[in-house]
Structures are given as C-alpha cells and as structure tokens.
User: Fold this.
Amino acid sequence: MWAAAFDLSSAKCDTMNVRPFIQKTIPTLCGLGLAACVASRVQAGSINMSIEWPDNVTPPATLVGPAGGLGETWNQFSTTSAILLKDTNGVSTSVGYFSSGTGWGGPDLWSYTALGLIRSGLRNFDVSSANSQRFEINGLTAGQMYSVWIASANCNSGQRSKGVWSTPNQTTTVGDQPCNNTTDLNEVSWVEGNNYVLFENVKADVNGKITFNGHSLDGYRLPLNGFQLMEIIEESPPVTSTTIIVR
Assistant:
C-alpha cells in the first residue's frame, strides 16, 4: 500500500481504503502432491488521474479510462506535477506525479472527443531527441508492484500523435511500447497502442518511484493525457488440512 496522507492542520490521518472490488485475479494452482499451492495476484488500491485544459474541465462523472473508472473519483490537474492524489474512493494518498522534458509544455485542448480523458493533455513539441520526455509517479511503496495505464493521444485531425513509452523500472512489459493514432484517429474506444499503453507488474524503486520515458516518432507529438495506477497485492490461498493414514 502507499502511505496514508496527513492533514497537519487538524492532525488527522486518512487511511487509504482498498478498492472495494477485485479488478483481476490470476487463478491459484493447488493440488500438486500434498499441498503445493501458489499465491494469486489481485489488483487493489487504485488512482485515476486526468490532465485538463483549465478553461474546459471534463465533468469528472463522465471520465473513464482504459482500466475503467466511471463513477469513481478522478484527480484533475492542469499542471506538470501534483501531490497527495486521491484514490478512487476520494481518500488522499501520498502519491504524486512529475513530468518534464525538452518538449513539454502546459496543458492543451485538442478536440471534444467522446473519451473525455484524451480531449486534452500535456503537449510535447520536441520530436528530435529520444527519451526527451520523463514522467514519474512518486510516493509509492518501495518494492511494491503496480499496473499503470498511460493515456497518450492527440486527437486533433491536423496533428495526431505517434511515439513510444518505456520504463527503466523492473516490469514484465519490457522495452518500447508504441502509441500511434496517425492511421486511426480513434476518439470513441480504448485501444492499446492507439490511445494508451499498459505497463504490467511494474516495481516501484527504493525511493517509491516509477519512471517512464517517452519520445515522439516521425515528426509527430506524444502527449500525456493522464494515467491510471493499480496496486497489485499477493493473495495467499486458504490453508487446507490433509489427513494421512500410515499403515
């Protein structure tokens, strides 16, 4: 779990609630020999984040990402960094984000897409240098595993977007992950590789950070519209007893 967020003005500590439903479960393997079982992995704590154009903020009740989130709490910022993000239940956490790069600018509004999350985002105009963009999620639990969805699409028909994202953190999603909408300007549905990328089993480093690098390709832009973060926890299988009769 990430740390609780403290309100120093009232000396109150808000404890993060675990997401009230399990997003994904990997089946447990049991029954080899007497009791050979492995723990399953489930998705638990979750955070939704949307970069917004300050003069036209998307109604939060309509926001939904590639990992869902309709009707949940969404953090909405127009800045390149923020702290004390709220979880999907509206409880403040220690999690924050930070973005930088030679091509980064402030938020921009591209189009009024059906998917409100990709209507606007942090723009990037630098297409010359690999890994010129850096996006960091901080305030996490060191060594904890997470899944991260990055929304990255410019749906202006005269601009569009194309590039790759990667992470130096330990993950099962290794190498450059492409995101390209130059041939399919998809504004209505979430399609991996078109308007978002997914990194699975990403391990937060010793400082509680997950870092992502991105760069544009072929003269297009590669924005950051927002992200969704889900904590992965190990779930131990129930203990069962076995009776052995020795003759």
Q: What stands out?
A: The chain has one domain: 43-232. The CA atoms of residues 103 and 126 lie 4 Å apart. The radius of gyration is 20 Å. Residues 43-232 form a domain with the Jelly Rolls fold (CATH 2.60.120).
